[in-house]
Amino acid sequence: MELSRDELAGVVDLFGALPPADLVSAGEELAYKRGTTFDGGNIDDAITTYHLVRFGPDAGVVEGADETLLAAGPAAFPALPDGAEDLPHIFDREPVTPDRAALGTVVEERFRTDAARALGDGTGEIDRLLDTSYDIEAWAPVDLGDIRDRLDAAAD
C-alpha cells in the first residue's frame, strides 16, 4: 500500500509533527488494517516535493523537540486516509503546534538551496520550483521574489 503525498501530510498533520519512524509506523498500521503492507518509499518523494518538511530539533519549530520531525509542507493539501482517525489513539502521542515562522525559515533555506542547484544544473526542476515558490509564500511569512525572478528568467 502506498499513501499519496497528501495522505502522508494528512497523517503528519493529525499530530502537528511526527518523527519519520512514527510516520512509517502509522503507514504500517493503516496497511495492516487493510490486510496489506506499507511501502513508505514515497516519504522521501513527499519531502522532495515540499508536501512534507523535515526539520531538526535545533530549528526552533517545535518547543522541546529532541529529534528530527516531519510537518505538513507548503505543497500539501493534507488528506486523511481511511482509518487515520484512529491513529492518535493508537500512538497515544500528544499533538504539537509547529511554529509556522520557524518552519518557514527551514523551508526557505532548503528552497534557496534547491533553486541554486536547479539553476546551476539547468535541471527540469526549475518549473516545479517556480510553482512551489508561490505555495511557500502563501504558507509561511517568507519572501522568495528574488529567487523566483531568477527561476522565471531561467524558465524562459
UniProtKB/TrEMBL annotation:
InterPro entries noted in UniProt:
DUF7109
Determine the domain of life of the protein's source: Archaea
Q: What is this protein called?
A: Uncharacterized protein
Q: From which source organism is this entry?
A: Halococcus hamelinensis 100A6
